[in-house]
Design brief:
The protein is of the alpha/beta class. It has ten helices and 15 strands. The protein folds into two domains: 97 residues, Roll (Urease, subunit C, domain 1), CATH 2.30.40; 273 residues, Alpha-Beta Barrel (TIM Barrel). Helix content is 23%, strand content 26%. Strands 1, 2, 3, 4, 5, 13, 14 and 15 form an eight-stranded mixed sheet that branches. A seven-stranded parallel sheet has the order 6-7-8-9-10-11-12.
Length: 391
């Protein structure tokens, strides 16, 4: 770690985060903020990081993690999903509910080096369990009474304000997490949407192996909401058209301004879905995220750069891959004026990456492997002006 009031990143290939091609530029950082961007900036009395051959991007944003460590089966320590992997900002996707949010807010978020924001699970207890390999298999919607709308609304409103970290609602729609009761799933969906509307926030919906049709979910969402796990390989995939084409409801939802997020996870990214969706039908994700938790750290997710590498393999242009983990998730979070782009005056959150050449196996959630000739690797990260060298 390099703590300095002034840092000059030289000779990097700079991607702004808006999807435009890269430029060769230097970036000067003073007092935790970007002070200047331009070619061949003069050296002053400052630390220098030579980024020759590296990609210099806005700090990576993971739109779907579980970082409420110590609570339940899933969550990981923020650092495991964060700076150690090149990620500077993350969105916890509903690990906490209204009963457990105060502990997350008090004991985890303030102590993390990363900026952590969160979505409130419509279930009061949050995402405590639900791994089918760890009995008893039960989820947060097993009891319909947990989908308590008034307590969720009250929680978000209580914590809204200038420094809010609670920015929306979340529901997990999987039959096994709702005691195989469609009425429980439906109460969760309707409740999460209502919470978002009554708090002027957005809703993220996890949908896979659900008894609610995808078309019904899309109809409930509005501009700015997020549909995650878009390339899951289960029977209720929305890529149900001919040759793996997106269904009409999926296309209409995108046209209405709903964000589509990867949310790779342990069960939600399959090559057999993603390959035709992306390569044949050009239905690329708006945001690339990991759904990182305890059960996918080693495989198949590993980290956000590995997930980015899968879309590079699929043929997504590098500048679009970078936008999907910088500018676009910032916009989805309603924070496009804070994160996701490189501008003088902004907080100095920067990721430094390399494209490695070689032979790299990339595994999906059913164990299918594709071998890529290149992958993205984090080299260093700057958070609030502090430089950390990675392995």
């Amino acid at each position: 770690m390099c703590v300095s009031k002034s840092l000059l990143i030289q000779n990097g290939t700079v991607y702004d985060g808006n999807g435009s091609p890269a430029v060769q530029a230097d970036i000067r950082i003073r007092d935790g903020a970007i002070s200047e961007i331009g070619p061949h900036l003069p050296l002053r009395d400052e630390k220098v990081f030579d980024a020759q051959g590296m990609l210099v991007t806005p700090g990576l944003i993971d739109l779907h993690v579980h970082a409420f460590s110590g609570m339940g089966q899933f969550a990981v320590d923020p650092d495991r999903a964060g700076l150690s992997t090149g990620v500077t900002t993350m969105l916890d996707a509903g690990t906490a509910g209204s009963l457990t949010w105060p502990a997350f807010h008090r004991h985890i978020i303030p102590h993390a080096a990363e900026d952590i924001y969160a979505l409130l699970n419509i279930s009061m207890i949050g995402c405590l369990q639900g791994n089918p390999k760890m009995p008893p298999y039960m989820g947060e919607l097993n009891d319909i009474r947990h989908a308590d709308v008034p307590s969720a609304i009250a929680c978000i409103k209580k914590f809204q304000g200038q420094h809010t970290r609670l920015i929306g609602s979340k529901v997990r729609l999987t039959a096994g997490l709702a005691n195989q009761r469609v009425e429980n799933e439906r109460a969760g969906l309707q409740g999460a949407v209502r919470v978002a509307r009554e708090t002027s926030t957005f809703c993220m919906v996890h949908h896979a192996m659900s008894q609610i049709p995808a078309e019904e979910v899309f109809a409930a969402l509005q501009t700015g909401d997020v549909f995650t796990h878009m390339y899951h390989p289960h029977a209720d995939t929305p890529f149900s058209g001919k040759d793996g084409a997106p269904c009409d409801a999926l296309r209409r939802a995108r046209d209405r301004g709903i964000f589509f997020d990867v949310g790779h996870g342990m069960g939600a990214f399959g090559w057999k879905i993603a390959e035709p969706a992306c390569q044949q039908h050009q239905f690329w994700p708006d945001t690339i995220s990991t759904d990182l938790h305890q059960f996918n750290l080693e495989t198949p997710v590993v980290d956000l750069p590995t997930t980015m590498s899968k879309f590079l393999y699929l043929g997504m242009p590098l500048e679009k891959v970078i936008r999907a983990v910088t500018g676009m998730p910032a916009i989805a979070m309603g924070m496009g004026n804070v994160f996701g782009r490189l501008f003088p005056g902004r907080q100095a959150d920067i990721s430094l990456l390399q494209i490695e050449k070689g032979s790299f196996p990339l595994t999906d959630v059913v164990g299918e492997i594709r071998t890529a000739s290149e992958r993205i690797r984090p080299v260093a990260v700057v958070k609030k002006g502090v430089l950390t060298h990675l392995a």
